[in-house]
Amino acid sequence: MKVFWRVLLVLFGVALVAAVAGVATLVRGFRTQDPRIMQPMRRFLNETVNPEALKRAGKAGEETAVIHHVGRRSGTEYSTPIGAKPADGGFVVALPYGSDAHWVRNVVEAGSAVLELDGETHVVHDPEVVPIEDTAFATDEAWIMSVFGVREALLLRA
After folding, report:
1. Full strand arrangement of the beta sheet holding 84-87
2. Among positive and negative, which fits the CA dihedral 102, 107, 110, 113?
3. Collapsing DSSP states into helix, strand and coil, what is residue 3?
4. Residue 60 to residue 73: CA distance in whole angstroms
């Protein structure tokens, strides 16, 4: 019986080390915007997480918002779940993938979009990529922004 517990303890230790290494790799990938980390992460989010998040995003009582935008080349309408926070005269969205994320580029080029947050619909305009330090994220969620190296946010005026 002692052997069983020792083996179990070793397996737990190995799993813990692997989890810590995985998280460290993920954090480093975000901080450096390493395409070897970012591309698979974007693909996973787009194919797996976003479709599930969109089922609830924007509804009353939900923290996740949804932004409706039009593809800058295709003209296709898209809906993307995002984390938007109310700000003076509009909203602000942290950009962990940077300002070159497709949805950000679509919204900036179009100059407007529709944002659903907490059961309310807002037409947003004049999007502007700003330093994260110029937003509420700099104080409210500074530690997580710092850990993941988030440098930019999107300011959306309502």
Report:
1. 77-82, 65-70, 112-117, 120-131, 152-157, 90-94, 84-87
2. positive
3. helix
4. 32
Confidence at residue 58, expressed as pLDDT on a 0 to 100 scale: 95
Mean pLDDT, residues 43-51 taken together: 89
Tokens describing residue 94: 């942290």
What confidence tier does 142 reach under pLDDT thresholds 50, 70, 90?
A: confident
Hey, where are the domains in the chain? 56-157
How would you label 67-105 residue by residue, b for 16+ Cβ within 10 Å and e otherwise? bbbeeeeeeeeebbbbebbebeebbbbbbbbeeebbbbb
Distance of alpha carbon 46 from alpha carbon 53, whole angstroms: 10
Tell me how many degrees the CA angle 79-33-99 measures, rounded to the nearest 5. Answer: 45
Architecture of domain 56-157: Roll (2.30)
What integer pLDDT is reported at residue 5 of this predicted model? 79
Model pLDDT, residue 13 = 85
Q: What is the per-residue pLDDT across 106-120, written as a single tens digit (0 to 9) for each?
A: 999 999 999 999 999
State the Cα torsion 53-43-110-120 to the nearest 10°.
Answer: 10
